[in-house]
Amino acid sequence: MTTHPAHPGARSIRITPEGLLWEPSERWVRGRAGGTTVVDSRHPLLVWEPHLPVPQYAFPREDVRTDLLRPAQHPPTGSHTGSQVFHDLHVEGRVRPNAAWTFPADDLAGHIAFEWFLRADTGLDHWYEEDEEIFVHPRDPHKRVDALPSSRHVRVEVDGQVVADSGAPVLLFETSLPTRYYLPPEDVRLDLFDATDHSTGCPYKGTASYWSWRGGGDVPPNVLWSYPEPLPAVAAVRGRLAFFDEAVDIVLDGERLERPTTPFSRMLRTGGRP
Question: Quick one: which of 9, 114, 156, 267 could link to 164 by a disulfide (CB 3.0–4.6 Å)?
């Protein structure tokens, strides 16, 4: 049996002089633009850039439809680590600017990365790990998400008013984020919130719908959310409601918790949409 040179072996993460972390992945990854498969790789690399909390993939050049790539007409500056070479993607009569690039690191020579995370109108339309479609960004193999039913008592206050009180939460534990408390709809005062048209996607949980606090005050928009059709791994949160701990007050088993500081905190403080 021939061992591919990118086989992970001990699965140690390597670091480049430019500060890029990377490791081989054994997942079969495909990317499509429209009806065209642009990437089909069984030997991708996961790459973490210093300024991004999530990984991205870089693919061996031979696994990419390089015939669809052209030198970028208007390459960006400062969007990725190091001095990259960008490419526009020409596919099905449409040009997707700066859809692909190469990292300067010697370790990643011969590999091409594609826009995926926050990829509005530039990257590919669909990504698959094995036969499951993945959204927003690749899943991090060093991150874990567990949704556990509980009988703990959770009370939520917004601007001093009790808006939820439950003895049957599902606690969602996600690496590097605070515990989220998913509550039965009947235990939440939804009459105090207005549904919004905002939605977000998560590669671990699915697509979320949002509500905003109707009472005014210093409460950011879209502070409450739910996953009506969560991914199977977190099926226990289906239809339940959760709050941003960063912007509300949680009382857990009689103990008032401190509001955590997370990557969402600044966005919430400045009125940005999560």
Answer: 156
Q: Decide if 140 is inside a domain.
A: no
Measured between alpha carbons, how far is residue 53 from residues 18, 107, 127, 206 in Å? 16, 21, 19, 18
Non-local (6+) Cβ contacts of 226 within 8 A are: 185, 208, 209, 239, 240, 241, 242
Distance CA 232, CA 237 (A): 10
Q: What is the pTM of this model?
A: 0.81
Give the tokens for residue 271: 């009125």
38 beta partners: none
* 120-163 residue pLDDT tens: 567 899 999 999 988 888 999 999 999 999 999 999 999 899 99
DSSP 8-state symbol, 78: S
For 192-247, how does the pLDDT look when each residue is reduced to its tens digit (9 = 90+)?
999 999 998 899 999 999 999 999 888 999 999 999 999 999 999 999 999 999 99
Between CA 198 and CA 238, with CA 180 as vertex, the angle to 5 degrees is 65
d(C-alpha 153, C-alpha 44), whole Å: 44
Containing structural domain, residue 205:
145-269
Say if CB 186 and CB 248 are below 8 A apart.
Answer: no
Residues in CB range of 197: below 8 A, 6 or more apart: none
Among residues 134, 160, 186, the one where a domain terminates is: 134
